[in-house]
Write a structure and sequence with these properties.
This protein is of the alpha+beta class. It is about 30% helix and about 20% strand. It contains 7 helices and 9 strands. Strands 1, 2, 5, 6, 7, 8 and 9 form a 7-stranded mixed beta sheet that branches. The chain has a two-stranded antiparallel ribbon with strand order 3-4. The chain is flat and about 85 Å long. The mean pLDDT is about 85.
Length: about 200
């Protein structure tokens, strides 16, 4: 029985390769060459307009859109980072030789170095001036405004809503410090003249 089933299966495949003829009228398919169409559309393209749109879209991608009010007073908040931030699932990154098992605290269990980030709104001239007073060229997270205003800073990032919640950021400018198992957020009140928020 098995042999018969196999024969019927394979004979069906063999029939598919046989020319079974044509029924009814057939028509030649005429369609333009794909590459010719691309070349025609390229010739029609307004290259300057396309270049401007491309540059504008890249610039827009470098703008932060996470609203935070300006800090109204100097405060410091400390949180035990290892208690609240355990890996929810196993994470393997062979290229970076990283292996984190579910339930582990990356900071505590992997002896990560202390980190400091400044969080600013680059639309605020006063916060840009404040950033220049900080020691060295610290990594910067931008909540609002363009990252392009920080050309001299080698490490700059856009703050996401996820990070804002995870780090419990409430205002700008702030300094986020990971020291040992502690997350320390320093909120800085700075003198402002025309910045409004």
């Amino acid at each position: 029985m098995k042999k018969l089933m196999l024969f019927l299966m394979f004979s069906g495949f063999l029939l598919a390769w046989e020319d079974l003829g044509v029924i009814g009228e057939t028509y030649e398919i005429k369609e333009p060459d794909f590459f010719d169409e691309i070349a025609k559309n390229y010739q029609k393209l307004d290259k300057e307009k396309f270049k401007k749109e491309l540059v504008d879209s890249i610039k827009e991608a470098l703008v932060g859109h996470v609203p935070l009010p300006f800090c109204q007073k100097d405060t410091v908040r400390k949180t035990d980072w290892s208690v609240h931030n355990k890996a929810p699932f196993d994470l393997e990154i062979p290229q970076g030789d990283i292996s984190i098992k579910a339930g582990q605290s990356p900071k505590k269990d992997f002896n990560m170095p202390d980190l400091i980030y400044e969080v600013i709104n680059t639309d605020s001239h006063h916060e840009l001036l404040w950033l220049k007073t900080r020691k060295g060229m610290p990594p910067v997270m931008v909540n609002q405004g363009s990252v392009e205003k920080l050309k001299k800073y080698p490490e700059k990032y856009l703050l996401s809503d996820f990070l804002k919640e995870k780090l419990n950021l409430q205002c700008t400018p702030s300094t986020v410090e990971f020291k040992g198992d502690m997350l320390i957020v320093h909120e800085h009140k700075i003198k402002r003249e025309k910045d409004k928020k």
